[in-house]
Every structure is written in C-alpha cells, then in structure tokens.
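Case study.
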Amino acid sequence: MAASTKLSSFRLPPLPTIGEIIKLYNLRAEKQLSQNFLLDLRLTDKIVRQAGCLRDAHVCEVGPGPGGLTRSILNAGATDVLVVEKDTRFISGLKLLSEAAPGRVRIVHGDILTYRMDRGFPDTISKPWDGDPPNLHIIGNLPFNVSTPLIIKWLENIANRTGPFAFGRTQLTLTFQKEVAERLTASTGSKQRSRLSIMAQYLCTVHNRFTIPGRAFVPKPKVDVGVVHFTPLVQPQIQHPFKLVEKVIRNVFQFRRKYCYKGVEKLFPEASRFELTQKMLQNADVDPTLRPTELTIPQFRALADAYAHLCTHEPSLLHYEFREELRLKPLTKQGNKPEGTFIMD
Ligand code: SAM
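After joint prediction, the assembly is written out as follows.
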C-alpha cells in the first residue's frame, strides 16, 4: 500500500494528449529524421516495463519527440530523465512536460551520436563493473537511420567502459527495425545470424522482448519494430580490443553464404594469404568449411585469439584492410567486383 502511494506521487498531472501536443505545436513528422511517433501510452508503458524497475532511476531517453515514451518513463518513477532531441520543434512540448514534473526532466537539444553522456550524470551513481548495474538506463524509440551506428558506438563504449558505461553496466532498452532486432539476437545457425549478432552477444546479454506492428506508429513505417534489451556482461566473451574483434567478425561475415575460410583469407595480404589463413584456422581449431552463420561465439573467440597471436608476430597485419586494397586496385578485366556477396549488416 505504502509503495503504491509512493509510486502514485510520481504520476504526472493531467496533460494534453500526445496527439494534441502534435497538433498544438504543428509537429509534422520529418522523414529525414526517421520520425514515427507512438501515441498509445499503453504501448509506451509496455516498452518502459522492459527496462525493469525505474523507481528513482536516472534515464537518458534518445529522441523523445512529442514525449509519449517520456511520460511513461516518468510515470514509472524515474526521478532524473535526461532527454536528447535533435529536432528543435519538439523542445517547447518537452518544456511543458518538464513543468509538469518539476526537477525531473532535463532537456538537451543535440545529437545523440555526439552527446557526451558520461558528462550528463553525477559520478555518485557509478557502480563497480562486476557489481549490479547502476540505476541508470538508456531508453529510446530510436530513429531507424541512427539505430545501427548508435548501437555499434555503444558496443564499443561497453568494450572500453566509456561513455554511458563509465558508470558501470548501464542497461539499454531500445527499438530497432524488426529485422535488425532479429539479427541482434540471432543464435548460431539461424538465417538472421550476422555481424551484429556476434558484436552484440559477445559483450551483452541481449533479448528481443516484443514486436510492435508498424501500424502502431504515426506515420506508419513500412516495417515492424522490435524492442530489444541489453545488459553488458561482466566478462565479455571475447577479450581483445574492440577494433580487433570487430575486424575479425567483419571479415568473416564478408561472404556470409560461403565457407568461413573465404572471409578469414581477407584478413591477410595476398602474398601470405594462403599460409596465414591455414595457420589461423588450425590454431583456432575451426573447420574452414563452416559458414559464418554456423560459427559459435567461442569459435569467434578462438579466431580472434589466433588472429591476435599472428599480429603479435607481424604487427603490420593489424593495419591491413582488404577493402582498402580493393579500392586502390584497378577493376578486373570485366570490370567485375570480386566474388562473394556483400551484405552490410
Ligand atoms: N520517442 C518518440 C516516440 O516514441 O513517439 C519519437 C520517436 S521517433 C522514431 C525518433 C526521434 O528521434 C524523433 O523525435 C527525432 O527527431 C529524434 N532524432 C532523430 N535523430 C536524432 C539524433 N541524432 N539525436 C537525437 N534525436 C534524434
């Protein structure tokens, strides 16, 4: 009883609906900023519930727009909500929300890709990396056009314990295009297994919590949306610098339908390619005829170990980039691209 009374004190006073806010401030969605709004507060409440308990939490919300998700975060009991919004048109509506929840909303008019989140919260909320996560959450109905670069950036931050992860194992609850959500959580052997699956899963526990049909958004996007929750692992499953791990995974997945040795080869310059590929696969004890999608994370760890070992003997390998070499090379006689299917994911 006492707890419910306390939570009710977090609830917002009556406000115009999100639809009314959109009309009031003439907030037509901008395609360029991937704006698709959620007007149904039951749905935004459901997204926010995926973050776990937000009582007294610090939250960074990415792209609050007209503020539907922000209202749910406040109603869930967060006491410090820092919203980062790029589009000026939303700032007045967010100020209205901030007045309704005095001292609980901080508005940053800026770009989440460059915002220094490590400066946005007090050091006192930090928790040791091997302890429980801090009471800090990143939540966002992400713009599609920044969701992949943003999660890659945050995964690098997790590996280096920088940015939002300078405070500890900060949890993230984010939306992605359904196909991207499926790739992030795909298991070994599945059709969706990709570079993103390995990158996310070697650093985090990742769950695809539920799918929101496109029709729930205004305007309706062409795709459905997945809500994904990430908790950084205490021990990453691969313990090498992020850039090295990323390079191995990227090269292996370069030819996702072919045998994995085809991608491994591209880690090495032509002159030593055959010999070093054999050595790397042997040392890693990985069957060269497995497809990239069939490799487990321990096998990627073994590949990263074997590649790092080769690089300690020949440090120039670390700087070798097959694509860079391709760019500098004239096209083949027929003007063809090299064999293989390039799928950037
Ligand atoms: N949170 C709102 C909702 O659920 O209805 C809006 C979500 S909409 C998909 C994405 C929001 O992110 C928009 O408000 C857009 O202006 C904002 N946005 C786009 N790019 C951004 C960036 N680089 N940094 C911060 N906000 C951005």
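Observations recorded in class. The beta strands are 37-38, 58-62, 80-85, 105-109, 136-140, 171-177, 204-212, 217-218, 225-232. The first strand starts at residue 37 and ends at 38. We will return to this complex in the next lecture.
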